[in-house]
Amino acid sequence: MMIVSPGLFKHPSRCFRSYSIVGVGLLGTFTYCHKYKINRVSFSSSIPSYYHCRATLSTMMEEVKPEFDSDKAAVLVNELRKTFNSGKTKSYEWRISQLESISKMIDEKEKEIVEALRKDLSKPELEAFLSEILMARSSCKLALKELKQWMMPQKVETSLATYPSSAEIVAEPLGVVLVISTWNFPFSLSLDPVIGAIAAGNAVVLKPSEIASATSSLLSRLVGEYMDKSAIIVVEGAVAETSALLEQKWDKIFFTGGARVGRIVMAAAAKNLTPVTLELGGKCPAVVDSNVNLQVTSRRIVAGKWVCNNGQACISVDYIITTKELAPKLIATLVSVVEEIFGKDLMESKERSRIINSFHFKRLVNLLEEDKVSNKIVFGGQREESQLQIAPTILLDVPEDSMIMQEEIFGPLLPIITVERLEDSFAMINRKPKPLAAYLFSDDEQIKRKFVQNICAGGMAINDTILQVTVPTLPFGGVGESGMGSYHGKFSFDAFSHKKAVLYRSFAGDSPTRYPPYTPGKKKQIKALLSGKLLNIMLALLGFYKD
After folding, report:
1. Beta strands in 275-412 (DSSP E)
2. Where residue 418 sits, what CATH number does that domain have?
3. 185 and 237 share a domain?
4. pLDDT, tens digit (0-9, with 9 covering 90-100), for 322-341
5. pTM value?
6. Which stretch of DSSP H or E encloses residue 504?
């Protein structure tokens, strides 16, 4: 069913109109605008005050090309490649000027950014500042401070086989890169990789998520206003535009989103042997030992679940594993902390983001209403679709084969699974795909060591949640189904750079041993040189190994 404006029916025999189709696409739920010329339309009922057009399947449609198609994407990439090949983006001065422009943009447009995030996700102002503005600003300031050092060639040792010589590793920009961002942190997760790409000297196309439409529109306008339009471009749109971009040859694709779309991106990149960084997600566990400070533990779990975009974060706590003995105390403390932060009437709280859209709202409700799950709710569960709000919800001992334990929740639902011994949690975690993050709360040093050694995850935090991503000296990235590649800090610079190996030699020291004919004496001399033993090397250099 499509909703059409009254103006469509002025000439029902020959109508021309654009309309939106809402559904699930490349980046989750999308609104895709497309134009059709409708030659014949039949209606199943009279038209009320708001017009439901029920076009029959036999409706003849003449498709009109979308505004941004593969041909236009190819032109865009070619223009950017001309800019890159001119050498413009490689200079230190250009990189610094663009980073300074981003910093200025964030400072001057902070109120507009907060407002866009409020429109898209109802993000509280403080949360928007901390998780979006401050994160992007910090990344930019670090790049400005460290760029000269990052760009310097790295001197490395050489071997005796190349004596006399010197060598270095040169960080070289990859070229023209594509950044496909996501909707849950639509500002910081768009700019953070772009900052790395610019710092590394690339030309960049940013495709923000159309689901966070206000932020996407703002980014398009601000980047056009503050940045170099010949090298840094924002392309807005949905599935058609993303598909058109993915058909092009890029020097790197950086994608943030889900594993399903990550596979689509990787398949498209493989056609041109384009390297990819995939920042995906997964079911991030939090294991809670019985020897912890329950109040601090609960506050940090609440911060890593409901305060963090209402659970709509790839590093959010997805589920908890604890002992049967501790579970009742942990639940009681979590409930106390939730009510302390959000109030007794959870649905009236203004301190939580809303669910992004009705598709994800219904997806989360379906997880709650599964037969073997619906009776496991021990706290919360209230919902209001008109407000796209679901209260913080705790469930106890849901079956491991339930949907809520099989897929990433990405919302305010928190299952707690109990085990007899804490070590039993390791096997449960390892039965699932490798998560983007894993958390442990314990004062037992042996448990900490076992957790780090035996649990494979993109990253970890011991006795806290989510803060590992704020440390610029730590790489942020997944492993297995939670992603590949990493970024943040210098790792962002490295993600968009090629490490070029360079060996320098003079015309001296041209040993005849490397050239044919290879005689037994030369073979002995080469072995001596490569032996690493000083005496053998000296004898070889003095010519003692002869035929």
Report:
1. 276-279, 285-288, 319-323, 377-379, 383-384, 389-390, 393-396
2. 3.40.309.10
3. yes
4. 999 999 999 999 999 999 99
5. 0.86
6. strand 497-505
